[in-house]
Amino acid sequence: MTKLLASTILAAGLMGFAGAASAQEDCGRVTIANMNWASAEVLAHIDQIILEEGYGCDAELVAGDTTPTLTSMIEKGEPDVAPEAWINAMRTVLDKATEEGSLHYAAESLSDGGVEGWWIPKYIADKHPEIKTVEDALDHPEIFPHPDDAEKGGLYNCPEGWGCRINTTNLFKAYEGEEHNFELVETGSAAGLDGSMAKAYESGDPWFGYYWAPTAILGKYEMVKLEFPAEHNKEEWDSCITVPDCADPKPNSWTKSEVYTVVTDRFKQAGGPAYDYLETRSWPNSTVNQLLAWMADNQASGEDAARHFLKENEDIWTEWVTPEAAEKVKKEVM
């Protein structure tokens, strides 16, 4: 009886240890914002696969955009992860949330930062070498006619719901776009913005508007980013350019666009090694551009591109994870 009791206690202890080990490996449920632009979509799918297969998470993708997603994370603690958050547009409130501990900046998603600004096609820049700054372009509405009113110039705006829409709208006011006989052109979505650029480029027509990198379309169409004549003023940027309907924006310029993975405190505390992955995972624009070009050429989905990356770039992503997680992910994607 004594031996039986001892065996029972030992077995229970081993089961308890195994349960504890399993709990450590299983990070639980995690919601990941699937933003509606290609690089963010691919990264969200990469995170979902690695967190599920490598770290045992129950990872769910939820639709998101910059401003509503980050606002929801601040106010509601949901979703848990924004893989590619362009934080400049909401830096003040995000810094406050990280200082208070409700949110955390994990890895810098794009190791060399994002690129944002106002662009024109290279063939227009070559034809009009005098246009080097946004002020130069605004001085010539006749070169960049509005698609709905050729008597006015048109500046293509950032899509609805994105932080860059606030920035572009305020900068348009700061540089007196209306006084230069320009109007903002609302494209409605990322697809609409892409389509406007592609249509213009394929026809050799003028185009002037907001865009960013990394993207496949800037790899396909050679564009020139115009300079903003004012130096970047961070205080003015944070207090006005990033604020919707700022009453009196002053001329400013984009600085390096910092792009981070933003994580809720709940998941940082619960995620364990899975959170360590998010603190490590980072890639350069050159890698992302190549992947996005493959995605565009093959009309691939975000999940297709994620699996292609994991199959073809083992040397990159295995540096982000533990050896044990790497083996589990390889079994799933290879």
From TrEMBL:
CDD domains: PBP2_HisX_like. The keyword Signal applies. It comes from the Bacteria. Residues 1-23 form the signal peptide. Residues 29-312 form the ABC-type glycine betaine transport system substrate-binding domain. Keywords: Signal. InterPro entries: ABC_Gly_betaine_transp_sub-bd. This is ABC transporter substrate-binding protein. It comes from Pseudohoeflea coraliihabitans.
